[in-house]
Design brief:
α13 packs antiparallel against α18. The longest helix has 29 residues. The chain folds into five domains: 173 residues, HPT domain (Four Helix Bundle (Hemerythrin (Met), subunit A)); 55 residues, Helix Hairpins; 182 residues, Histidine kinase-like ATPase, C-terminal domain (Heat Shock Protein 90, 2-Layer Sandwich), CATH 3.30.565.10; 148 residues, Roll (SH3 type barrels); 121 residues, OB fold (Dihydrolipoamide Acetyltransferase, E2P) (Beta Barrel), CATH 2.40.50.180. The chain has 22 helices and 32 strands. With 711 residues, the protein is α+β, with helices and mostly antiparallel strands. It is 37% helix and 28% strand. β14 and β15 form a beta hairpin.
Length: 711
Amino acid sequence: MSELDETLREFLIEGHESLGQIEQLMLSMENDATRADAVSGCFRLLHSIKGACGFLGLRHLEELSHAAESLLASIRSGEITAGTSHINWLLQAVDGLKKLLALIETDGSDNAGAATVSQILANRSSYSQQAEPVKAPSTVPMRITAEIAHIHPNPPSGTSIKHDDIPAGASMLAEATVRIGVEVIDRLMALASELVLARNRIMQASDQIEDAGYQAATRQLNLVTSELQEVVMRTRMQPIANVWSKLPRMVRDLSRQIGKQCRLDLEGGETELDKTLLEAIKAPLTHLARNSVDHGIELPSIRMGLGKPAEGKIVLRASHEAGQVTIEMSDDGRGIDTDRIRAKVLSQRLATSDDLARLSDSQIMQYVFMPGFSTADRVTEISGRGVGMDVVKNSIESLGGSIDLSSTLGTGAVVRLRLPLTLAIIKALIVSAGNSAVALPQAGIVELMRLEGERRTRALTHVGDAVYLRFRSELLPLIDLAKTMGIPCSQESDTDAFSVVVVHAENRQFALRVNKILDSQEIVVKPLPSLLKGIPAYSGITLLGDGAIALIVDPVGVARLAGLQGRRNQAIRDDSKTPELTKNTRPLLLVETTRNRMQAIPLESVDRLEVFPVNRLEHTDDTPVVQYRGGILPLYDTSGHPGCPFDAERWTSGTVSVVVHQTPHGLKGLVVARIVDTVIESVEETGGITIIRGSVTQIVVPETWLAGVPQ
């Protein structure tokens, strides 16, 4: 539907509901003419209908609702006392309004109801002879009669409209729509969450049961649960326009208050977000808009001197991106002066000049989010107290989101918010840290790796008392998750292997050291117990498939708990390792094929890495398959010709390593002998052959290699 169609649809649904309430209130008026609440209720509902009619251009519906509203106004003010004839006419008007709504639903306009409206308005004069005037001038009834006369000066004698003459106008929209309270939807969401937990336990237990019927039932349960979860979550989703519809007026009034010209343009208002998140981002968005007007947009005289239009422009846009909602607020104002921020940082002794000299402009701008920091020269009612941006950041991060700030001096600034679609059920990586299993939200995870032996030695380096991970062309701070969180763990030797989770958060990257990667699954987020609410590194708890309770770790909180400050707060350029990425440089997954050859697969084409027991493999035609995540994963061998199926009969090992690739037609599996490493190399996008680590290596692009495989 277009925006107007959706607005009209909502109006029709609410209109039928309002008319039903008006009908009940009018019957109450008939039984007790002194009920002021019933009269006021009818008047308020009719006034809402009339106001929407003017916006939508429904002239006849507006005319009839206005006439009914006028009569109610006279009754409410005490000019006349409502009698049976008045209630009869009002009920006839309600029936006429219902008929007009039905016509609009069918034809898109109320033009076909002109005759009906004329008849009802003409019949209105009959009540004047039965009115029971109260203490009021005798001219009052004549004034109302005159009002009717100019609409229909010569009503035919004996004209009357029976109730049966006007169809109530049954609405398909109203019948197809049910309004449900928020508490019912919240209860549905809670039940769906519990079902997801039960599904996870059954899926985990199914790995030990080889019964084909049980496996089929498990897959069906998984599919139905996922679909039910998606549908229930959609009931909580609302357009983000519901939140920011009041911002343009606020921007207009504020800009005029401080002598500026500014407008706010909205894009992507149909983007949907969980209702809980919508309520939580109202205040942050309001503060960001006020900041743009006050700090960003210049005075008209200054803008014109710079060759800009006198009117400043702020754009607020929203979109879905990679399973998250991105909200971006940009302006064409003065931008952020990093030299001014540096001066403020030095004056407030937040850092030394040597520290600031090592930071880039983007890193300098992060000081804007510090509590009490402000670049304003004086305190006003609008800004200058240093309270706001730190609150905005804390609010967004408490929702599991992130905030990013960028600017070009003289051109403008951009604030970008990234938020999860919902807080109830999220995708998470289950890892082992010390002697416990914890969950890491997948939204900020960049890469996973296993370090052992020589590779561990090459990957780690020490800078002072800190340990850094060589990753791409940078040295990332490496945080031991178990030690930082105080999780008990067994004694480890320096030669023990461990896994690393590279995380992107707060516009930076850092690495978390964990014992092992256990699983990836959807988890249900439950609030922390009161005893743990004071620990910033935990954002909730969940129940795993085996029934164990796992804490949900907030990577940003872990970084703060680890004390990443100053230089350690950012990655360090590793000039001794890998040259800076060029246009043709790509991260690759280095593998050994089933024929002992070296191949490299672009990392962006790798969805997951899996290991399957050979006894789980089945066959369809000439292609071996394995049941995987509720579906069927066909297996291919990249050491053969393009699209070559894997030859399971000649495979002697008890397991197969599989690189899972996502295609438009589903998942495909590429069987390899072993996973060697991840590397950065300059290669052609279409594939080819190159030398990696002294070995001739074939570049396999799954999109091309699988092009001839049947869908």
